[in-house]
Amino acid sequence: METLFADKKFTRGHQRLADYISKHMDGIPFMVEDDLAQACQVSISTVSRFWAEIGCRNMKEFKQRVKDEVLLSPSRKLQSAFDKAGGGHGAGANVLATADYLRQTADRLDQAAFDEAVGLLGGAGCVHLYGPGSAESLAALLDFRLTRFGVQVRRLDRGGHELFDRLLHVKPADVIVVFGFVSESPEMAVLFDFAKERGCRTLLVTDLVVSAMPEKADVMLYTARGELWEFHSMVAPVAMIEALVAAVGKRREDEALRGGEELHRLRRQYQKWLPKKP
């Protein structure tokens, strides 16, 4: 952040803004210009002129620039994790620290959007999951859970041109779930555009506050994973998935219960050949 403000000769009002932003970067993604003006006791026009002083067109571009600069260094995020681990507070305290991500996620949860997401997942002809990178684990978990309830699930686990082979099987009654963290990839852009063309619905699970993706998705759920410069946690996204799965199971209660009974029968019948691992 310091590089954006380096060698700048600010007016008194702009100096207040630069100082405030430097000290409160964790809250900037959630703020608008009026919030900054009130916090720094300056006018809205002063805030608006500030962005040009640091080479940005507006606040939105500033947020994107900060995100891009911070996220370019994976080593910085790893260092944040190492610093926490070596902070002398113990493993238990480090585990409890992730509870704040759960709180942030719960605070920003839109119940109407959550209910709509449950409806999409529970009523889809097929749920297609796209979770690149670390989000692959989230796609695997959602696949495993929904399949138990009789929901047809397919994984869109290939990128580049190979993604097209998967898209051939998507139908208008289907739903595409995109785990969109960090930034919108070309594959994500294709998925949103394709869904609109095919006439199917999309569910976006993201930690992005400033992004064009939420406008492209039919339903968006926010989940906190840590600050831009931190090693991102999957605690809150996993909790979001478990909440979705439980609600989908309730929606498909009869089918889910029948599936559970059949699973129990199969395990008992074939436990000699395929014993359950401890």
TrEMBL record:
- Which InterPro entries does the entry link to? Homeodomain-like_sf (IPR009057), HTH_RpiR (IPR000281), RpiR-like (IPR047640), RpiR-like_SIS (IPR035472), SIS_dom (IPR001347), SIS_dom_sf (IPR046348), WH-like_DNA-bd_sf (IPR036388)
Report domain HTH rpiR-type positions: 1-73
State whether keyword Chaperone applies: no
The record's Gene3D superfamilies line, in alphabetical order, gives:
Glucose-6-phosphate isomerase like protein, domain 1 (3.40.50.10490), Winged helix-like DNA-binding domain superfamily/Winged helix DNA-binding domain (1.10.10.10)
Signal peptide residues on this chain, from the entry's feature table: none
- Domain SIS, which positions? 117-254
Give the UniProt keywords, A-Z: DNA-binding, Transcription, Transcription regulation
Q: What is this protein called?
A: MurR/RpiR family transcriptional regulator
Q: Which organism is it from?
A: Paenibacillus artemisiicola
